[in-house]
Specification:
heterodimer; A: 300 residues; mainly alpha; ABC transporter involved in vitamin B12 uptake, BtuC; 0% strand; B: alpha/beta; Rossmann fold; six-stranded mixed beta sheet; three-stranded antiparallel beta sheet; 28% helix
């Protein structure tokens, strides 16, 4: 969103404040879509962090940019272009194997090409600046009721698939070689995860844009894994952080003339810094700070 | 570092059905393996009996991990026959526990050790987790049984105190114990351990070998261990599988680890030296092995 919703002033009565902003359909749509996407991104984000697929996530967002720009050029909804391009790229990564998501050089090369392609599509389109801005940085206040509905059903399908493969995916994400030896279908799991990631990115871009996708896809989960060692708890914390950043970002943007995406990213970043500093201070108080690398052979 | 804990009494079935039928745990006949167009090794015939502790030794790239992948049904021999626990190798063999050489787990993995070990039970189950299923009594019993079993295998490998720790905070030796516990989930009849001693100092290598040897004796589990240095385990071994130069030699350590045997294997003169403590140093092969142990 390029500016605030420019509502009435903040009066410290949260109920009244919320009632006044939710009187507007575009704010209701933004809260509904934001909630759905935050839940989905918080859950999928945990696996992104577990699988060290942050850069792949970033790259998928960028390939989505070219897809969205191409869709705009063709006169269709950007989210369809996003879905086509991100799913195609994600499938390619899945066929290369889980470790392909860690191939920085190859991913970076594809990422640069995708951005260039997106730039070409946008230059061919007359409404260049506005469309580019909304794809790059998100346009949550512009989501329609049908957009919310599409987001809801798409997210529901992704979550249903994830519920079916949660345990094998967790196992394969943590310990690929053992999972393969135990007979898990690694290609199918990789493909399923990458497609779920592509779909999540495609709909999350509506809120946060391709350039700020980390704020919802990576930062909440990165916070969560530093707060708990239990997978289910980490997923819940990740979702909570994503929801908090999205809701607070939308709330603040109602009163301030700055983009929603900025507030979401800033809140997520602030939480991350607080957690890291807090953990560092705790570690500082323990002798482990002075220990050798945990995986090194200990003293003899 | 968790100290080596005394092993519990052998409450586990010491041998599987194939042992009762008299078939060896592993039987390879004129086995040949290729990787793409290249021969890795050929004409390998050997047997491993149930409950044996076997070291798989050889230079880097000799095909030691490939042997494990064949036993796990992840790689097929190009010729010859191979039977594992009485049947052809197949993927997802629950009777085999496996500790791979390269784990994706590192200091950035913030997960309880207990959770990793317990994934061995439900990790291959599909559908919503037990705690989300409408029935409560059955799954709860199963979860409790899994929790107890995970605690037992962690105790068996001397890692009871590591269950609640984060994987990323463990030392190399502690991690290997947790991986070993993960492999023991489900009470396998065979353990395949791919370089569990790498990155461990001599003391911790010996402690881990003692633990593994204790498991072999207490559970009767057939164990194959890939290692670069045979010295930490040489006193515990029943057999050695030595892979080098595209060929495989097997037998008792005293028969295989001789200058004559290894010279024949490598096709060049190889010297096997022993120090006053019976530590072995192999000189003259493609890749020298063994270290002077303390």
């Amino acid at each position: 969103m390029s500016g605030s919703a420019a509502g009435p002033g903040f009066n410290w009565n949260i109920v009244t404040d919320l009632r006044s902003m939710l009187a507007f359909e575009f704010m209701r749509n933004a809260f509904e879509a934001g909630t759905i996407i935050a839940i989905l991104a918080g859950i999928i984000g945990y696996f992104v962090v577990l699988r060290r697929a942050s850069f792949a996530t970033h790259a998928l967002g960028h390939t989505g940019f070219s897809g969205a720009a191409g869709a705009v050029l063709l006169g269709v909804q950007p989210v369809y272009g996003l879905l086509v391009f991100t799913i195609a790229t994600a499938s390619g990564m899945a066929f290369l194997g889980n470790r392909a998501t860690n191939r920085d050089v190859e991913i970076g090369t594809v990422l640069a090409f995708a951005l260039g392609l997106g730039l070409l599509f946008l230059s061919l389109y007359k409404g260049y600046a506005t469309e580019a801005y909304s794809i790059l940085f998100g346009e949550v206040l512009g989501i329609s009721a049908s957009g919310v509905s599409f987001t809801f059903w798409t997210s529901l399908i992704v979550l249903a698939v994830l519920a079916m493969i949660y345990r094998p995916l967790l196992f394969a994400s943590l310990d690929e070689d053992v999972a393969e030896a135990k007979g898990l279908p690694m290609l199918a799991l990789n493909l399923a995860f990458m497609v779920m990631l592509a779909v999540t990115i495609s709909i999350a871009v509506q809120i946060i844009g391709v350039l700020l996708i980390f704020a919802l896809m990576v930062t909440p989960a990165a916070i969560a894994v530093r707060l708990t060692k239990r997978p289910l708890t980490a997923v819940l914390v990740s979702v909570s952080v994503a929801l908090s950043a999205t809701w607070l970002g939308l709330f603040i943007s109602w009163y301030e003339p700055y983009p929603v995406s900025f507030f979401i990213v800033t809140i997520a970043f602030a939480l991350y810094v607080i957690v890291r500093v807090g953990k560092a201070l705790r570690t500082d108080a323990s002798p482990r700070l002075f220990a050798s690398h945990p995986h090194d052979a200990g003293p003899t | 570092m968790a100290a080596s804990a005394p092993l519990p009494p052998a409450t586990h079935p010491p041998v599987g059905p194939t042992a009762r039928s008299g078939a060896p745990a592993i039987r390879a006949e004129r086995l040949e393996v290729r990787y793409r167009d290249k021969f890795v090794w050929r004409n390998a015939s050997f047997e491993v009996e149930h409950g044996e502790f076997v070291a798989v030794i050889g230079p880097n790239g000799a095909g030691k991990t490939t042997l494990f992948r064949m036993l796990l049904g992840l790689h097929w021999p190009s010729a010859g026959s191979l039977s594992v626990l009485g049947s052809a190798p197949h993927r997802g063999n629950a009777r085999i526990g496996y500790v791979p050489q390269r784990h994706t787990i590192d200091r950035e993995t913030h997960l309880e050790c207990d959770k990793l070990v317990r994934l061995g039970f439900p990790g291959t189950r599909w559908g919503p987790g037990d705690r989300f299923r409408p029935t409560v009594w059955g799954p709860r019993l199963r979860l409790e049984a899994e929790r107890d079993a995970a605690a037992q295998v962690l105790a068996d490998v001397g890692a009871s105190d590591l269950g609640s720790k984060s994987l990323g905070s463990l030392s190399g030796g502690e991690l290997q114990r947790v991986f070993l516990a993960e492999a023991l989930v489900g009470n396998p009849e065979m353990l395949l351990l791919d370089e569990p001693l790498s990155n461990l100092d001599l003391r911790r290598s010996r402690e881990l070998v003692e633990t593994i040897h204790g498991l072999v004796q207490a559970r009767g589990v057939t164990t194959l261990l890939v290692a670069h240095d045979i010295n930490p385990m040489i006193k515990c071994l029943d057999k050695v599988i030595y892979i080098a130069n595209g060929r495989v030699a097997t037998g008792r350590p005293s028969d295989v680890l001789t200058s004559e045997s290894l010279s024949a294997l490598y096709g060049v003169h190889v010297e096997v030296l022993r120090d006053s403590r019976n530590n072995i140093v192999i000189v003259g092969g493609e890749d020298d092995h063994g270290e002077e142990g303390a």
